[in-house]
């Protein structure tokens, strides 16, 4: 990425984030950085002087989709000054200087551990200087980020980054680095700032969030359960969630927290990926079908109404019909409230990409359809079982119709209610009907009146 032509310093920006919740968090922090630097947030990429593509490398052909987006931005800018383009996130980390070589319209490349340097990179690009930063320091970026700003009733808070698990299909250890935990005090301070800014619910994020460990202000060592218990005492915080977890880091203390921390919501996203021990070993998942199910049993023992979510990969190299049937069996055993399922796709540089016995695409398609049909059936059943139950709903936004509000249940479903309650209020509603993806509720006082 050599010398480039100078460009006008941007006055407005738009951040487009792809992929996981951590990317959503990173995108929000980049927006805060740019606003603190004097830029104004634009409603769309078409109206911005700077477009930040905050990329994800998990999905198939992720890099190709980024280049397609870059081409679309260039095409749509014809007839006006082309915006400055920044590629951030995991594709930026994986591709580095190859991005501007392949797409000369790109002005800035910044990895997920270096985005705190984005304002300086924007200044470099405006001056025609090289603007590439894919360094991976040990989580120092958080110290450079501005204080959290006003926001809605729910918020993400990254507490841990990176991964040491080295699953054979995954690029995260290479794009996000080794597992690092943010300090206790920094997390508590950010949580307080989020609450002051209007958050009622905070979701703690990490590539392996339950690997978080740190010392409290008195020097006592804690795992994620200790951090959750500390946040539970913060005035104004009504709900706590966390994701994404690894089965090997699901400690007894964290399981116990699901039973006795009232603000910890009854929802657990715990990826298993396959029900076949042979495939789990090939994936380097370091847990077995039985050890995973034992965790689920212990969680359900302390929180019987918990909603369980997971991730599944179909068509991993060498997966036989029997291996896939084992995945269907574990899904039937767990009974998910929701789950995410994907066809295996090779990632350059990962061990699985060069494994023998790659599964034919048409067979992966057929297996994915069968798996998703079962997951959808379970999700509908879980939702239907809530009909007639009273529960608290956190109001998040307006509905499509006048007088409607949409909120979240404790189990993470969207719930439509008619109420004058303000955004951010908690209301008690009775669930009166359930669809595959959302619920309908009636305020409890309205039920009494009727």
Describe the protein in words.
With 450 residues, this protein is of the alpha/beta class. The protein folds into 3 domains: 12-133, 3-Layer(aba) Sandwich (Rossmann fold); 140-308 and 320-331, Alpha-Beta Horseshoe (pyruvate-formate lyase- activating enzyme); 390-449, Nucleic acid-binding proteins (OB fold (Dihydrolipoamide Acetyltransferase, E2P), Beta Barrel), CATH 2.40.50.140. It has 14 helices and 22 strands. The chain has helices spanning 21-36, 62-76, 90-95, 98-102, 118-126, 172-175, 184-196, 224-231, 252-260, 277-282, 289-302, 321-334, 361-384, 444-449; strands at 12-17, 40-41, 50-55, 84-89, 108-110, 132-133, 154-158, 160-161, 180-181, 201-205, 213-215, 221-223, 239-243, 267-269, 307-309, 311-314, 340-343, 390-398, 404-408, 414-418, 426-434, 438-443. The strands form 7 sheets. A 6-stranded parallel beta sheet has the order 2-1-3-4-5-6, with helices on both faces. α8 runs parallel beside α9 (252-260) and α12 (321-334) runs parallel beside α13 (361-384). The model has no long low-confidence stretch (mean pLDDT 91).
CATH superfamily of the largest domain: tm_1862 like domain
Tell me the major beta sheet.
6 strands, parallel
Low-confidence stretches: none
Going across the biggest sheet, name each strand in turn: 2-1-3-4-5-6
How much is the radius of gyration in Å? 23 Å
CATH architectural name of the largest domain: Alpha-Beta Horseshoe
CATH C-level category of the largest domain: Alpha Beta
Give the overall silhouette: globular
The overall number of domains is 3
The mean pLDDT is 91
Describe the oligomeric state of these chains in a short phrase: single chain
What's the CATH topology name of the largest domain? pyruvate-formate lyase- activating enzyme
